[in-house]
Design a protein that fits this description.
Pfam families: FAD-oxidase_C (PF02913), FAD_binding_4 (PF01565)
Shape: globular
Number of domains: 4
Strand content: 15-25%
GO molecular function, one term: catalytic activity
Structural class: alpha+beta
Helix content: 25-40%
Cofactor: FAD
Keywords: FAD, Flavoprotein
Largest sheet: 8 strands, antiparallel
Number of helices: 17
InterPro entries: FAD-bd_oxidored_4_C, FAD-bd_PCMH, FAD-bd_PCMH-like_sf, FAD-bd_PCMH_sub1, FAD-bd_PCMH_sub2, FAD-linked_Oxase-like_C, FAD-oxidored/transferase_4, Oxid_FAD_bind_N
């Protein structure tokens, strides 16, 4: 895949529209200089490059509503924009304006008794986590980009991350939502109720919609009791079948204290050891597979270290694991997590990388990795499979690195062909081609390939109803037939 450039569109706002936008949000909050627009035109991996006439930065929900009304009257596309950490081109503009949520950055309320926090869409995820921590609570959504991604984007893409096993995806962490609709009306649903059985659950329409139905401006999020003790371990295994069996063993032995279960292939570990400074080898040599395990408890006196030692000893006796290390300090635990979280960065040093975000029933993961590895290796001799991810919830990042010495551009041009091979196998096994990254622009055609016509018709009907002028992030997720 080469960089997908936006088709030529008029990148200048009509004077009356520019004047109206500046009046709505202030002249300084409407960016039109070409060099200042550049960071908003590209996505993190460089696969897409778009164009826009302006970036508008409203500071309140009312200002967002005013901006949307102006754009709706002018028929001007709007692309909501958070931290620009998405991986499927969902935030790349195709004309019109970018609506940045950066100034919607207030934490409106924290209700400790109700275990909720109300935040605006532009609050950085790490700041939500920090505010919860200061209140002796936990907001569990956690992913590699948490220092720069914004909560509105996390909700608009239904982000996953490392804590899904215990706490669920982003949509499971939301009680209420405030959204500006495509006509500029404000849908205000900032309720902290856990039970509200009064008709359709409208917030779920917008969570995961990637800005195609409206602009999320604020949310009421669930908080949880903060873990008081945790233990992290890394186990070495001979194959994926053993990893699945180890999960069953850990789940039975540790119960709800099992909070993370991450798969790392030998090649992924080897790449990290080669390319990430400061990463130390946990074993004498990278095993075929490793699993990073975390146990956590809200009870300060829980003997989790002893529990981890016992379950790993039992797993060793049963032949499930070949070796294991248990972190003896926070520094050692962080080092193990750094190994897992550095895999995407380490892959960059090996040339072109084709990403596949696959979800499967846990029982089907070994079959998938075996069949998909053979299929892509047959299709392109020398290709290097880098499999890792959230095994505990069935999400495998089945990434493909270019053959050693291959031309990067030629390899990336095979993206669609190799993606189809991988996705066909995942779908045949009852899986999904998008576990947590979303659809964006990258996977629009893939969605049409696999979704039923009935499902697509319902999605189109929702889009037409909520966005009849097709101004909300057009060209993403669902395209009208």
């Amino acid at each position: 895949m080469t960089t997908r450039e936006a088709p030529h569109v008029d990148a200048v706002l009509p004077p009356d529209v520019l004047d109206a936008l500046q009046a709505a949000v202030g002249a300084k909050a409407v960016i039109v200089a070409a060099d200042a627009l550049e960071p908003y035109r590209i996505e993190e991996r460089g696969l897409f490059r778009g164009t826009c006439a302006a970036v508008v930065q409203p500071a309140t929900t009312e200002e967002v509503a005013a901006v949307v009304r102006i754009c709706a009257a002018a028929g001007l596309p709007i692309v909501p924009h958070g931290g620009n950490t998405g991986l499927v081109g969902g935030g790349v503009p195709r004309g019109g304006i970018v609506l940045s949520t950066a100034r919607l950055n207030r934490i409106r309320a924290l209700d400790a008794a109700n275990r909720t926090i109300t935040v605006e869409a532009g609050v950085i995820l790490a700041d939500v986590q920090r505010a919860a921590d200061e209140a002796d609570a936990l907001f569990p959504l956690s992913l590699a980009a948490e220092g720069s991604c914004r909560i509105g984007g996390n909700l608009a893409t239904n982000a996953g991350g490392i804590a899904v096993l215990r706490y669920g995806n982003a949509r499971d962490l939301v009680l209420g939502l405030e959204v500006v609709l495509a006509d500029g009306r404000i849908l205000s649903g900032l309720s902290g109720l856990r039970k509200d059985n009064t008709g359709y659950d409208l917030k779920q329409l917008f969570i995961g919609s990637e800005g195609t139905l409206g602009v999320i401006t604020a949310a009421v999020l669930k908080l949880f009791a903060k873990p008081k003790v945790s233990v992290t371990a890394l186990a070495a295994l001979g194959n994926v079948e053993a990893a699945v069996a180890l999960f069953q063993h850990c789940n039975a032995a540790a119960g709800d204290s099992l909070s993370a279960f991450e798969l790392i292939s030998g090649r992924a570990m080897d790449f990290c050891l080669q390319h990430i400074p400061g990463v130390t080898p946990p074993f004498d040599r990278p095993p075929p597979y490793s699993v990073l395990i975390q146990l956590a408890s809200t009870r300060a006196n829980d003997p989790l270290a002893e529990a981890a030692e016992a379950l790993l000893a039992d797993a060793f006796e049963a032949g499930l694991i070949e070796d294991a290390v248990i972190a003896a300090s926070d520094a050692q635990a962080n080092a193990l997590w750094r190994l897992r979280e550095s895999i995407p960065e380490a892959q960059k040093a090996e040339g072109g990388s084709i990403k596949n975000d696959i979800s499967l029933p846990l029982s089907a993961v070994p079959t998938f990795i075996g069949e998909a590895s053979k299929a892509v290796e047959d299709a392109m001799p020398g290709i290097r499979v880098v499999a890792f991810g959230h095994l505990g919830d069935g999400n495998i990042h089945f990434n493909l690195s270019q053959p050693v010495g291959a031309d990067r551009a030629s390899f990336m041009a095979a993206w669609d062909r190799l993606e189809r091979i991988v996705s066909d196998i995942a779908m045949a096994l009852g899986g999904s081609f998008s576990a947590e990254h979303g659809i964006g622009e990258l996977k629009v055609d893939v969605l049409r390939r696999y979704k039923s016509e009935v499902a697509l018709d319902v999605m189109r009907a929702i889009k037409r109803t909520l966005d009849p002028k097709n101004i909300m992030n057009p060209g993403k997720v669902i395209i009208d037939a």
